[in-house]
From TrEMBL:
<feature type="domain" description="FAM69 protein-kinase">
    <location>
        <begin position="142"/>
        <end position="348"/>
    </location>
</feature>
<dbReference type="Pfam" id="PF14875">
    <property type="entry name" value="PIP49_N"/>
</dbReference>
<dbReference type="InterPro" id="IPR011009">
    <property type="entry name" value="Kinase-like_dom_sf"/>
</dbReference>
<feature type="domain" description="FAM69 N-terminal">
    <location>
        <begin position="12"/>
        <end position="77"/>
    </location>
</feature>
<keyword id="KW-1133">Transmembrane helix</keyword>
<keyword id="KW-0812">Transmembrane</keyword>
<dbReference type="InterPro" id="IPR029244">
    <property type="entry name" value="FAM69_N"/>
</dbReference>
<keyword id="KW-1015">Disulfide bond</keyword>
<keyword id="KW-0735">Signal-anchor</keyword>
<keyword id="KW-0256">Endoplasmic reticulum</keyword>
<dbReference type="InterPro" id="IPR022049">
    <property type="entry name" value="FAM69_kinase_dom"/>
</dbReference>
<protein>
    <recommendedName>
        <fullName>Divergent protein kinase domain 1C</fullName>
    </recommendedName>
</protein>
<keyword id="KW-0472">Membrane</keyword>
<dbReference type="GO" id="GO:0005789">
    <property type="term" value="C:endoplasmic reticulum membrane"/>
</dbReference>
<dbReference type="Pfam" id="PF12260">
    <property type="entry name" value="PIP49_C"/>
</dbReference>
<comment type="similarity">
    <text>Belongs to the DIPK family.</text>
</comment>
């Protein structure tokens, strides 16, 4: 498996040397030898995921398809070649790059195309402020990246929220993402919290380094889950739905921030409605993994609105095991723990994804109990005032 991944990297470097593709990772990968392969994490149907070290920092290298040539070529480059052979001399302007890249992003994410054709603020601003033109290798590499839905999601959202894995660089169709250890359903704590408790980490409250204990890490991580839910529900121009919520798709940074590391099954509201609105004969036909709707039997058509919510599924699959009497042991009978178990159960059983007011009430109740639990565990009664959920009010203006 490792040899197959290495062969791909050698072919990638040949194309880099020939000027076919490029990227800020290519020089270190192909010339300086600053990228060290560790192991293949996934290799099936052309998709490759590899663990590596880039300048001593653990990263994950990803690509949806095996070869650079497997991706659709940018039609405008082929058009320039056909229209007189000037493609090598007359390049696209930065505004052209912004325009066509934005259309591709909107199409991939299922967002409406309006008059405001903007890329994510940092990415698009850099393109528009640049005075230079872009080479064929740069444009072809960008186009290959834009044909990978997960890359688009992570690249768009990392400018807007700290709850997704960060993209660190790219070379052709491969891109490097920060390495974070995923959760596991078989682990009683779901995440390897023991590893995070062994070294000082920045406090989510003060930003200063402090030692966390396993006892207060779980409620803090749970608070970060609630923050992520609020981000995805309110801070973009469309609600973001997570349709595959399981421990393996999340990780925890050292500051105890919850991070979505696999967003293959994440959809903004417009695309979610298209997915859900299918033919049906019963409600079971309207289940799309963790995103479900109801069957209108008068029309034999699934409703376009999601019946459940991100919060309900997180409560069911993550919070309920965390705060179960079995895991809590002797603490399970304490009044605060009993209240929390009831709140989690109510959240997991709540079947009203369209009732935004009720969702907010359920989330606020959980947040209040978790903050109180953190206060109790740390013995710092003043901490609750400081531990407010970090909100970044930014609009995804597509």
């Amino acid at each position: 498996m490792l040899l197959m991944c290495c062969y791909v990297s050698l072919f990638q470097c040949d194309e880099y040397q020939q000027g076919v593709l490029t990227g800020d990772l290519c020089e270190d990968l192909c010339v300086a030898g600053r990228v060290e392969y560790k192991r293949c994490l996934y290799y099936e149907n052309g998709k490759k995921v590899m663990a590596a070290s880039w300048r001593g920092v653990p990263v994950v290298l990803k690509s949806k398809l095996e070869n650079f040539s497997s991706y659709e070529a940018l039609a405008l480059l082929e058009y320039q070649d056909a229209a007189g052979g000037m493609g090598g001399e007359e390049e696209l302007s930065p505004l052209d790059v912004v325009f066509y890249a934005t259309l591709e992003i909107k199409n991939s994410l299922g967002l409406e195309t309006g008059n405001n054709l903007t890329l994510p603020r940092l990415w698009g601003q850099k393109l528009k402020e640049s005075e230079r033109t872009y080479s064929r290798a740069e444009l072809a590499s960008l186009w290959a990246l834009l044909q990978q839905e997960e890359y688009i999601f992570l690249r768009v959202l990392q400018d807007l929220t700290h709850h997704v894995a960060k993209i660190l660089g790219s070379c052709g169709h491969f891109y490097a993402v920060e390495y974070l250890a995923a959760g596991h359903a078989w682990d009683q704590h779901i995440f390897s919290l023991e590893d995070l408790s062994l070294s000082p980490s920045p406090s989510p409250d003060s930003g200063q380094d402090r030692m966390f204990t396993l006892r207060d890490m779980v409620p803090r991580v749970a608070l970060s889950f609630l923050e992520m839910v609020e981000h995805f529900e309110n801070d973009f121009s469309h609600r973001l739905h997570l349709c595959d919520i399981k421990p393996e798709n999340f990780a925890i940074r050292k500051d105890l921030t919850v991070v979505a590391i696999d967003v293959d099954m994440a959809f903004f509201e417009p695309k979610m409605r298209d997915i859900l609105e299918q033919n049906c004969t019963s409600d079971n036909d309207c289940n799309f993994f963790d995103c479900i709707s109801k069957c209108d039997k008068t029309k034999n058509r699934c409703g376009p609105n999601r019946k459940n919510s991100n919060l309900q599924v997180i409560c069911e699959k993550i919070f309920r095991p965390w705060f179960s009497p079995t895991l809590l042991g002797a603490k399970a009978g304490l009044p605060l723990q009993v209240d929390l178990q009831r709140a989690v159960q109510e959240c997991a059983d709540f079947d009203g994804g369209e009732d935004g007011e009720r969702r907010r009430a359920v989330r606020q109740q959980l947040q209040a109990l978790l903050v109180e639990l953190v206060q109790e565990d740390t013995g710092n009664q003043g901490e609750g005032q400081e531990h407010k959920m970090r909100r970044v009010h930014t609009a995804l203006n597509f």
